[in-house]
Amino acid sequence: MYLDKCILQTRDLKLEESGHVMGEEESKMETNAHSIIGKSPFTQAFQVRRDQAECDILSDDAVHVKNHYLCPGVIDALLKNYMGIFPLWSGLLLGDLSRHRKGTSKKDGSHKTRDTNCHVELWFGLVKHSILLKKKYLRPAEFVSKMYASIQGRYIEHIEQHNLPMHILDKNFGHPSRPDDDHEEQWNKRESSAGHTKSKSKYFNSPKTLPNPKSPSATKVKKRKVDQQEKDAQGNLTWLWKKKDTEVVVAVLPSQMKGRILLIRHCELCSLRPHQWLTGEVIEGVFHVAADKFAVLNKMYLLNHYTAGVILFGDRTQLTSHSLPKVNFDNYEAVLSFVLVNNNHWKLLYIHAKTSTVFLVDPAQSIKELDDSEHAAKRIQ
């Protein structure tokens, strides 16, 4: 008797719990029935389709194939939250709505084959095929110009179709610089670590502008290279000075005369040693190198120092062997040379053609410089 009493009490408790659960489900169903989804005719339509599908599955004619991906909870979630508002997130109401009329079985080429083509997808199709013409990898300026022209044309078409005034395109609608619901984040106003903040922070703030590593400029690199070349040249010159004088050619210099070159031998190069007597070949070579560097070879004729010495101090009979028949002095603005005086001193000779003036310049600043220039001018006439 005691055992039967316990079984009855347990059965009564289960009935009460089941009744309580049924009551909660009924209250939820009543609440959902008064919502937008509950009142939607699409909810009922899809629920009928679902019940019909379940009946077909349970029928004897159904082929029972085990579905490993069956998840009834997904169907419940779709029916409860999404299928009631199916027209809002699908393309069901796009285009001609007469195609949904009962008894309509006519289908043409313009009939939509699916109901999931929403406005965004349609717009991207227009952009791809109609506006950009399937072109890819456009530059930003070209993309913006194409989109602007298309959108402006669509606005004008809309205005003309609805008989709206055209000046609304030029109307500047006033709007606040920032909407009321746009709350600016205050942390963005903090200064970076590059600025001067009043309070120090234990966190690292990246600077506004990142410093770039300093790279050596091209001029510095070029100057460094030139300095290295000069150092190497000075080292080679010092090494040649230490050798015994020879007749070996150590340098070949360009000449003003075409087809001719200036040769500098080792014994002549050694005259550049400190406290040594300079030879005429070395001085003439320096003249030609400097004239080529400063590009004055076409304006100034460099006269050979032997010829200049014969003209100023030599015998008239020697001029025939030192004449320059191939040189047209009218093509030059000046003549530059140097002469050896008393076999122990070099003087600069400069002839200016435009003023017909002769200068015999003494680097030691002699008081006879004017007389020497007048004597040189008489010898050159």
From TrEMBL:
InterPro entries: Papain-like_cys_pep_sf. Residues 169-193 have a biased composition (Basic and acidic residues). Gene3D superfamilies: Adenoviral Proteinase, Chain A (3.40.395.10). Residues 169-230 are annotated as: Disordered. This is Uncharacterized protein. It comes from Pogonophryne albipinna.
